[in-house]
Amino acid sequence: MEHWLSTVVAQRRALGLRQADLAALAGVSERFVRELESGKTSVRLDKLEPVLEALGLRLVVAPRETP
User: Fold this and answer.
1) What is residue 64's three-state secondary structure?
2) Residue 32: is it exposed, middle or buried by C-beta count within 10 angstroms (0-12/13-18/19+)?
3) Pairing with 40, which of 4, 8, 51, 66 sits 20 to 30 Å away (CA)?
4) What range(s) does the HTH cro/C1-type domain occupy (predicted)?
5) C-beta of residue 55 within 8 angstroms of C-beta of residue 22
6) Are 27 and 50 in contact (CB under 8 A)?
7) Are 47 and 23 a contacting pair, CB within 8 Å?
């Protein structure tokens, strides 16, 4: 599981939310949350952002570190 994805799952669990609870809070379908957490390769940002907001997280774009 990708690092950011494991953070999403861990935060949901830390808040004591079920996938259905998170979906309701974010205004997305439970299916979207389930697919997101299972590593779906493409997600819509307009659906991801409310999920992150409900979890108290945010999306940050930063330059990649070079070795």
Assistant:
1) coil
2) buried
3) 66
4) 8-62
5) yes
6) yes
7) no
**Distance from C-alpha of 29 to C-alpha of 44, rounded to nearest angstrom:** 13
Q: Does domain 3-55 have CATH number 1.10.260?
A: yes
pLDDT of residue 62: 87
CB neighbour list of residue 2: distance below 8 Å, 6 or more residues apart: 39
For the chain, which residues make up each domain, given as ranges?
3-55
Structure tokens at 24: 């309701």
pLDDT in tens, 10-54: 999 999 999 999 999 999 999 999 999 999 889 999 999 999 999
Residues in the chain: 67
